[in-house]
Amino acid sequence: MMNEAIQAKSLTLGYGDSIIIDELNLSIPKGEITVFIGGNGCGKSTLLRSMARLLKPESGSVLLAGKEIAKLPTKEVARNLSILPQTPIAPEGLTVLQLVKQGRFPYQSWLKQWSNEDEEIVMRALKATRMVEFKDRPVDELSGGQRQRAWIAMTLAQDTEVILLDEPTTYLDMTHQIEILDLLFELNEQENRTIVMVLHDLNLACRYAHNIVAIRDKKVYAQGTPESVISCQMVRDVFDMDCQVSMDPLFGTPLCIPHGKGRCILKGGEINAI
């Protein structure tokens, strides 16, 4: 039985003459949450796009459930894998319900029109994201967190085993970040969905990921559990930053405390930097 949802084999990606990912090999475990981390411009989003067949490799291949994704019919890919890009934009006036229904397009054909099953899946996606009460609201009138939940509802309506998300918490406040990540965690726990996402917050990545992939110098620098990947040396090498790694008091996962300038406090009769 195959344990990899997606594999990259000797994958080289680029734009024009610029190589972003070079001869990269990677396996994404099935039924787990995998998070890509790395500095700006290291190729995290580029790698995610290639896994969704949105970017053609310069060389190498991406396998989806053991099959080369480039050779699969578009609808077959869309029935097995969905992607939520950074800051997606909906047409003006499009309602939440209309947006979420678009997730069912890969299942439509001349022979198979809109069905009760499609309707049930759309409503289930709206309920899972707590967006039922907003279904008739235009997407462009929603708050940032509500808008992101609407897009995730559309992704859920696509009903794929693998979900790719590029920085799903960007521009969201702390409350909405946790709300979105909790939702994705529940989808993984309850429905065994394979979740792959790019995150910038290392501490949130450690809390939610089974598997962390650190990208540096166009290749995988390290891959594994948060405990095996997150270290002072890794943060120094990948992010060019000094830090202290401690334990999250609530979750027991690695907690990265960056060095830097900040306020000072009086502690034990001595002044200490926070």
TrEMBL record:
<dbReference type="InterPro" id="IPR003439">
    <property type="entry name" value="ABC_transporter-like_ATP-bd"/>
</dbReference>
<dbReference type="Pfam" id="PF00005">
    <property type="entry name" value="ABC_tran"/>
</dbReference>
<dbReference type="GO" id="GO:0006826">
    <property type="term" value="P:iron ion transport"/>
</dbReference>
<keyword id="KW-0547">Nucleotide-binding</keyword>
<keyword id="KW-0408">Iron</keyword>
<keyword id="KW-0067">ATP-binding</keyword>
<keyword id="KW-0813">Transport</keyword>
<dbReference type="GO" id="GO:0016887">
    <property type="term" value="F:ATP hydrolysis activity"/>
</dbReference>
<keyword id="KW-0472">Membrane</keyword>
<keyword id="KW-0406">Ion transport</keyword>
<dbReference type="InterPro" id="IPR027417">
    <property type="entry name" value="P-loop_NTPase"/>
</dbReference>
<keyword id="KW-0410">Iron transport</keyword>
<keyword id="KW-1003">Cell membrane</keyword>
<feature type="domain" description="ABC transporter">
    <location>
        <begin position="6"/>
        <end position="242"/>
    </location>
</feature>
<dbReference type="GO" id="GO:0005524">
    <property type="term" value="F:ATP binding"/>
</dbReference>
<protein>
    <recommendedName>
        <fullName>ABC transporter domain-containing protein</fullName>
    </recommendedName>
</protein>
<dbReference type="GO" id="GO:0005886">
    <property type="term" value="C:plasma membrane"/>
</dbReference>
<dbReference type="InterPro" id="IPR017871">
    <property type="entry name" value="ABC_transporter-like_CS"/>
</dbReference>
<dbReference type="InterPro" id="IPR003593">
    <property type="entry name" value="AAA+_ATPase"/>
</dbReference>
<dbReference type="InterPro" id="IPR051535">
    <property type="entry name" value="Siderophore_ABC-ATPase"/>
</dbReference>
